[in-house]
Amino acid sequence: MLKIQGLQFGFEKAFFEPFDFDLHAGEVVALLGPNGTGKSTFMKVCSGELPCICGNVLLEGKPLNTMSAVERSQKIARVRPTLAVPSRMTVQEFVLLGRSAFAGFLDKRSANDLKIAEDSLKLVDAMKFAKRTLVSLSDGERARVFLAEALARESKVLLLDEPTAFLDVPHVISLFKLLRQVAVERKCGILICTHQVEYALRFSDRVIAFDNMQKKVFVGSCDFAVQCGALSWAEVK
Amino acid sequence: MILLALSVVVFYGAEDTFVLKYFRFPRFFAALFGGAALAVSGLTMQSVFRNPLAGPFVLGISSGASLGVALVSLAGLSATSFLGSLGILPAAAIGAFAVMSIVFTCSRFIKDAAGLLIVGLMIGYIADAVVSFLIFFSEEQTLHGFLAWGMGSFARLTFEQIPLYTMAILVGMGGLLYSIRYLNLAPLGDEFVREHGMNVKKYKYLTLLASSFIAAVVTAFCGPIAFLGIAVPHLAFGIFRTTNHRVLFPACMLIGGDLALAASLLPQLPLQSFMSIVGAPVVLWVLLRAGRARDA
To answer: Residue B2 — pLDDT band, cuts 50, 70, 90?
Structure first.
């Protein structure tokens, strides 16, 4: 679905050697790498918010830079846990904002939009706090609500930028399980950037590992990544 | 309903068509459109600046408009003559835009709500001080009209000015109505807006221009009116309990218009004082509530 060919990205100077990657429907791919290696930058390149230095990013065979901003936002959703939320907004109102790219200029929501938002909330099991304000939620609840907003966009590609940053162990596990379920049920590709290497290896289908020492990008299965030392930076010596 | 009741009161007892045409009618339009315009302007500024304490008066926009009017009217054009009314509108708009661009530039460096408020107040003080200088150096004849204008009143609009006044406000409101999708996303930040496929720059400039323009129109014709813009959005939220601008926008128009109509029923009372008594407690309430939320 999301196809990356000979991609190099970075600011002025490329971070890594060119690499290829293909995100399939129904799979969860973990993006691993130490801080400052360009994981968030890569996410923005994948969502089309930043241009790449060379290579192609194709979505369903179409280059991202030929798509309009609206079209991109309908097909790719990026989620950040650091989003600052306004104090009065409720969960339901927030999730309905996910339908913005489909609304007319008066921002009306159709019955279909309401149903999609409700389904998204149900899928992440957040119906019981739909009427509460965002600020009153716990970090675990908020992570699920942010995911629901992205799901409401019905995007084929979900890019999650460190969704586990504020979560404790049980919440990380339940979030990963939820992501697996979402990927299968919604038939979308999920790219998740995280520092929770162990859980990522346990729950994701493949990994992308950024190695800033060798300036190389590793793409492959979890076992293979460990075997060829692509994750050596994450080991406790 | 309230609107209907209030308009009945405005027109009640005015069998004399002269009074109706030249006193009641203009005042009705001035208050209804002026209140709605200031309230919507405040709502927009609060959403775009992501700041519950923003509003055309506290950010100094009204003072900027006053300065523009002072420059024109104290330079010899009477604010009530037709030529004067054509001259003060662009002057007020330019003054308002100038202050808005300063506040907007500052808003990039100041992240907390009270900080931006202080910047706006300071710019407002500077503008007011320049107006005082102009008053000091102007002749007594031109001064009288300007001072009366400076008190702020919905009774100053003339019958001939109604079309220009309402049209200008409707144009500005049209711009904001067109941006309603942006206004709903804006409280979550520029990056969030961009992720939803909208052109942040275009809508940000459009909404800030339109909201300062309608504040400038009201200031040009009715004088500076405090607190209406900052208080009404909070009253609207208090009643309708939603952050959706599809509801808040018309709600602010109604409540703002009603409040202004109610205030204009008391023509002897200085408008400024009335608005301060209604509006200042709302600002205090917002500040106190924000402080409590931080403690919790």
So the answer is: low
Q: Which two tokens stand for residue B163?
A: 């079309």
Q: Which residue of chain A is at minimal alpha-carbon distance from B183? A: A107
Mutation to test the B interface, candidates A40, A46, A91, A106, most B Cβ within 10 Å: A106
Is residue B224 situated within a structural domain? yes
| DSSP letter, residue B12 | T
B189 CB near a chain A CB, below 8 Å? yes
- Sign for the pseudo-dihedral over CA of B13, B17, B23, B25: positive
Q: Is residue B145 part of a domain?
A: yes
Record: contact B199-A69, CB cut-off 8 A: yes
B143–chain A nearest CA distance, Å: 45
Question: For the residues A192-201, what does the mean pLDDT come to?
Answer: 90
Q: What is the pLDDT of residue B126?
A: 93
Q: What is the pLDDT of residues B125-173, one digit of tens each?
A: 999 899 888 888 877 767 777 777 777 888 888 888 899 999 999 999 9
- Please name the member of A73, A83, A86 whose beta carbon is closest to the beta carbon of B196: A73
In the prediction, which pLDDT does B296 show? 41
3-class SS at A54?
strand
The verdict on a CB contact (< 8 Å) between A100 and B184 is: yes
CB of B111 within 8 Å of a chain A CB? The answer is no
* Residue-range definition of the domain harbouring residue B221: 27-287
* Subunit contact A88:B243, Cβ cutoff 8 A: yes
| Residue A29, phi then psi, degrees to nearest 5 | -115, 130
The ipTM assigned to this model is 0.90
Please state at what angle helix B200-222 crosses helix B25-48, rounded to 10 degrees: 150
Residue carrying the six token digits 């923005």: A44
User: Chain A interface, mutation test: which of B173, B184, B196, most A Cβ atoms within 10 Å?
Assistant: B196
Q: With respect to residue B106, please indicate whether it lies within any of the assigned structural domains.
A: yes
Is residue B111 assigned to a domain?
yes
Span B235-252, pLDDT tens digits = 999 889 899 999 999 999
CATH of the domain at B51: 1.10.3470.10
